[in-house]
Design brief:
alpha+beta, Pnp Oxidase, Chain A, seven-stranded antiparallel β-sheet, globular, binds flavin mononucleotide
């Protein structure tokens, strides 16, 4: 078995260490965050740190890298309070990855990648037309992670758009039917296969 101790990790070359640490925590959600600046320039960026924070109220969070350089997504969502979360599916994988490139602020990643910005129900941030599962969120709060200067951004979910045929009668959304991808590290993309759904676990009902 391969083993890395903390002192081994400290000695690894930075790219190797980044690949190891980014992938060893498991498969991640893969989403495009859509925002718009006050000048009207749309922005799109891939994020793999979106997490469920709570259902009541409906909240999500994501990790933003330290504000040591320009962060367009963050600047835009702080200015107008809105952002969209758009699932990456197989058909837009390469375009989605390209949004991680550091384009100038006045350049829109929508235009550069050919993904289509769409505004739905007067929401103040652009969705990705080619994405089939999308959420409209309001900025709620930002918490500094003191250990490394990252921010945990909290958003409340105000809109959810789904294809007709992928939701079960109990509310659960079958993501494989939408070909939603998950990410491995910062450059691997996978198409998960659903194995099963299990009953709510109770202590006396396991055999
Ligand atoms: C697969 C992948 C996942 C990423 N996830 C995050 C993330 O969770 N948080 C983050 O701050 N940057 C993440 N990035 C980097 C951003 O996509 C990148 O910094 C982008 O340029 C940010 O754009 P912006 O300045 O327009 O906000 C990720 C990059 C890739 C390729």
């Amino acid at each position: 078995m391969v083993h890395y101790s903390r002192s081994d990790l400290d000695k690894l070359p930075s790219r190797f260490k980044s690949n190891l640490i980014n992938s060893c925590t498991g498969y991640k959600a893969c989403n495009l965050l859509g925002t718009v600046s006050k000048e009207g320039t749309t922005n799109l960026a891939i994020f793999n740190s979106i997490i469920h924070i709570g259902s009541n109220p409906a909240l999500l969070g994501f990790i933003l890298r330290p504000l040591t350089v320009r962060r367009d997504t963050y600047e835009n969502l702080r200015q107008n309070g809105c952002f969209t979360v758009n699932h990456v599916n197989k058909s837009i994988m390469e375009k989605a990855h390209q949004t991680s490139a550091k384009y100038e602020k006045q350049i829109s990643e929508f235009e550069k990648t050919g993904l289509t910005a769409e505004y739905i129900d007067d929401f103040q941030a652009p969705y990705v037309k080619e994405s089939t599962i999308k959420l409209g969120c309001h900025y709620e709060n930002a918490y500094e992670i003191k250990e490394n200067g990252c921010l945990l951004i909290i958003g409340s979910i105000h809109h959810i758009y789904l294809p007709e045929n992928i939701q079960h009668t109990d509310g659960w959304v079958q993501l494989d039917k939408a070909q939603t991808l998950s990410g491995v590290g910062l450059d691997g993309y996978a198409l998960p296969e659903l194995l099963t759904r299990l009953a709510y676990a109770r202590p006396d009902e396991f055999n």
